[in-house]
């Protein structure tokens, strides 16, 4: 395996004495599409930020191409790894083209303007993600799916071989969700490497070449979707009974929970009398 990212005995968290994930070890090779899955609050986003060097590890280290990520300068690191966070605040007035061009900053000195080569790369990225036709629109005027594709074009324009994406498909309809996963799959097939924090388990099982299942304190499972998408493993990580089934028509994995039936309090019910007088 050509190691792009290596995690050695890594422990991560926010507060100095509040460690969320403990003693993790794994290696990510070139061309892999790795889905990071697990319940809310398990530490998936914290792990991603630490691997990018935005948070200091509590113990251990993350190595990017064999070198600790915190030993890279900001621009040097940005040439090797692109990071898309959950919520991206964008000021009013910036067009889709402006946002994507911002991905070229690692290659420009502070006194340099974008040149013809930068324009060619930006156009190629926007055409690939299908947003070239909205290049002059303000980002606030486009749909959620278009906005995510603009942001994906930005990190493509950054030309980094490693992509770290934090919930890139959350909040999008199923068409855009599949499109984001399909784009990432094509990029990895072409030689890039991607790690995605994912909540859409069925899509993760369908598109990812590997899954990293995060539970309380650390890694519950690491392997192919077939190895990781098991009821006992998912139930342990999510803390609730989880069922896994194969769709007979598509062959895709479907995931759902099996919980106890709850009794609705009369205080939460709407009586027929209230409905009639409303």
How would the blueprint of this fold be written?
Elements: E1 3-13, E2 19-29, E3 33-38, H1 44-52, E4 59-64, E5 67-68, H2 74-80, E6 81-84, H3 96-101, H4 116-128, H5 144-157, E7 162-166, H6 174-189, E8 193-197, H7 201-207, E9 210-214, E10 219-223, H8 225-228, H9 231-238, E11 242-246, E12 253-257, H10 272-277
Parallel strand pairs: 3-8, 3-9, 6-7, 7-8
Antiparallel strand pairs: 1-2, 1-4, 4-5, 9-10, 11-12
Helix pairs in contact: 4-5
Quote the beta fraction. 25-35%
Rg value: 21 Å
Total number of beta strands: 12
Shape call: globular
What is the N-to-C succession of helices and strands? EEEHEEHEHHHEHEHEEHHEEH
Percentage of residues assigned to helices: 25-40%
Strand order of the largest sheet: 6-7-8-3-9-10
Q: Span from first to last CA? A: 66 Å
- What's the overall average pLDDT, rounded? 90
- The poorly predicted ranges are none
Structural class: alpha/beta
Main sheet makeup? 6 strands, mixed
Number of helices: 10
